[in-house]
Amino acid sequence: MLKIIMPPGSKRRIFAGRVKNLLRHGPNNSVFIYKNWIRRIEPKTLNPVLEVQATLISLVVPCFNTPERYIKALVESLIKQTYTNWHLSIADGSTDKRSPDIIERYAGQDERISYIKTNGNLGISGNTNAALKRVKGTYVGFLDHDDVLPTWALNEMATAIKQNPEADILYSDEDRLSENGKVRMSPLFKPDWSPDLFFSANYVTHFFVIKAKLLKKLGGLDSKYDGSQDYDLTLRALETNPKIVHVPKVLYHMRMAKSSTASSITAKDYVHDSGRQALSDYFSRNHIKVDVLQMPNRPTNHRIKYSLDGMPKISIIIPFKDKVSLLETCVGSILDKTNYKNYEIILVSNNSVEEETFTYLNSLKPKPKIKVFFYDKPFNFSKINNFARKKSEGAVLVFLNNDTEVLNNEWLEELASVALRKEVGEVGALLFYPNKTIQHSGVVVGMLGTAGHVFRGLKLGMLTPFWLPDWPRNYLAVTAACVAVEATKFDKVGGFDEEFITAGQDVRLGLALYEAGYRNVYWPFAKLIHYENVSVGAYNKRNDNRHDYEVSMKYYRHYIDQGDPYFNPNLDIMSEIPVLRRSHE
C-alpha cells in the first residue's frame, strides 16, 4: 500500500494530538482508565437476561489446596449469575484436610454443585477429568480455582449459543483481577478466531466453553500437557474443523495470585515446554513440517518456522519512477542480505526520465537475477504490478515498494513458506519507519474511516489492550509495500483491481482472497524498513485519492458496517494505536 487513503475532509487532524499523546505516555491502560471504561461502556454492551434459560452449562474446576477465600469467591460468583441454568463440578485433590470443607458446605447447600474428592492429587488434567465425569450440560466451561466470573458471564455465553447454535467452541475477552479481588486491570481484547495468532500464543484461554459432545469425542484433557492442557485440547479440537465463536466481552477475571501465570509468566516455567510440545505434536499429526521455537525473552510465546521444500522460484516485483537512490538501496539490500537464492527481481520503470536512473539500470545488466521492463503509460499502481506479474516466472510473487530496505537475511523464505500454505492467501511483512517504530503490522478495515495500520508508531514489545504487535496474526488485508502471495492464488482472484489508481488496491486484494476462502497473515519474521510515501511524489494527487476512496467504499463498506472480525469492538476504531473506545456508540 503506497498510502492509506482517507475520506475527503478526513478527521485525521482531530486525532493527531491524541496519537502524539499516546506515543508520549504509552498505550497501556491504567487502572483508572480501565475503571472508567468499565463504568461507561460495559453495562451498555450487555445482553438482557434470557427469559428462557434452556441451555445447561456445566462448569468444571480442578482444586488443590485452594485457599478458602479463593474458592469462596469463585463459587459466590456463580451463585450470583443472572443465568441460573448451570452446574458446577469440582474435583479436589487437596492434601490439606481443611481445604475441602468449604466446598463440601457449598455442595450441601446448592444441588447445582457436585463435589468429587479424588484419590490423591491427579494433577490439573487428572483432577479436571475427574470433574468432567459429573458434567450434565450441553456445553462445558473451564475455570481455574482462584478465578471468578462476572455476574453476566453465563448469560452472555448462553446468548451467544442461542445466536450460534452450531458453535462448537466459544471464547471471550478477559482481564486480570488483583490478588485481593478488588481491582480489575490489564484487559485482553481479542480478535475473532485467528489461527496464526493462536499458534504463537494461546490467546483463547479464558473464558473457554466447548460443546460437551465434542469434548467427549476428544477424550478430555491429556496429563502429558499439564500446564498447557487447555492449549492441547483446543489444538486437538481444531482437527475436527469446529465452529469457533468469539464473544467480545470481558467474561472472565483471572486472579493475579502469586502462583498464577496472571501474576508472572515465569511462575509456571513448565507451561512453555508443555505448550511447545502440544504444538509440535499438533503439526506432526497433521503432517505439517515446522520447527516450534521459543520467542526470545517471551515464555509461552511460540515461534513457528515453516519448511520451504523444493526451492520454488520467487519473483520480487518492484515498480519505480526515478528516485534511483531509493531503488539502489532496495535492490542492494535484497542482493546483499537474502539467504534464499532462487529468486528473480523484476524492476518496472513507469515513465522514468532521469539520466541517473538509466545509468543505474544499465549497471544491472550483468546480474542474471534482475530483469528490467518499461511501462510508460499513465500511473496506475494496479496496472503496473499486473503487467509485471505477466513477466514473472515465480511460484510466489512478492510485491515490494522501491522505498523499502531488507533488514533480516531470512525475510524472503519466511514470506514464501507461509504464502505456500494451502489455506493462506497473502502474507505481509513487519515494516519499520527509519526510527524503528512500526509502520505496518497488519491492516484493519474501517480504521480511520477506511483502512489503517494497527500498532502504527509503536515499538515491538509494547503492550496494549490488543496485546503485542510482535505476534503473527490474521487480518483482512496487509500492505502491498511488501506482500507475498502464491501466483496461482493471485491469478485466481484477478490480481490487483485496476479500478484503484494509487491506493487501496492492496486492501481490495486482501478482501478478494479472504472472500475466496483464504486467510491472510501478518508475519513479523520478515522485517524491512519502509521509507513510507517517499516514492509516491507527484502520483499522490487529491483527485486520485478521492477516486480511490470512492472505489474503496464499494468493497470496504460491508466490513466497516459489520466490523472487522480481526479487530475488537471494544477498541477505538479511530486510533491506529490500540486504546479503549470512548463511547458506546
Primary descriptors:
22 strands, 22% strand, 585 residues, Spore Coat Polysaccharide Biosynthesis Protein SpsA, Chain A
Number of helices: 18
Q: In terms of per-residue confidence, which ranges show pLDDT below 50 for 5 or more consecutive residues? A: 1-28, 261-267, 535-539
The H-level CATH homologous superfamily of the largest domain, spelled out, is Spore Coat Polysaccharide Biosynthesis Protein SpsA, Chain A
The average pLDDT value, as a whole number, equals: 91
Radius of gyration: 26 Å
Give the class-level CATH name of the largest domain: Alpha Beta
Characterization of this structure:
With 585 residues, the chain is an alpha/beta fold. It has 2 domains: 43-264, Spore Coat Polysaccharide Biosynthesis Protein SpsA, Chain A, CATH 3.90.550.10; 308-533 and 540-562, Spore Coat Polysaccharide Biosynthesis Protein SpsA, Chain A. The chain has 18 helices and 22 strands. The protein has helices at residues 12-25, 31-40, 42-45, 68-79, 99-109, 123-132, 153-163, 195-198, 212-218, 229-238, 270-285, 324-337, 355-363, 381-391, 411-419, 487-492, 505-515, 542-562; strands spanning 57-63, 86-92, 113-117, 139-142, 169-177, 184-188, 208-211, 244-255, 290-294, 302-306, 314-320, 343-349, 370-374, 396-400, 404-406, 424-432, 438-440, 443-445, 451-453, 473-475, 482-486, 519-530. Strands 11, 12, 13, 14, 15, 16, 17, 20, 21 and 22 form a 10-stranded mixed β-sheet that branches. α4 (68-79) runs parallel beside α5 and α10 packs parallel to α11. The protein is elongated. Mean pLDDT is 91; it is low at 1-28, 261-267 and 535-539.
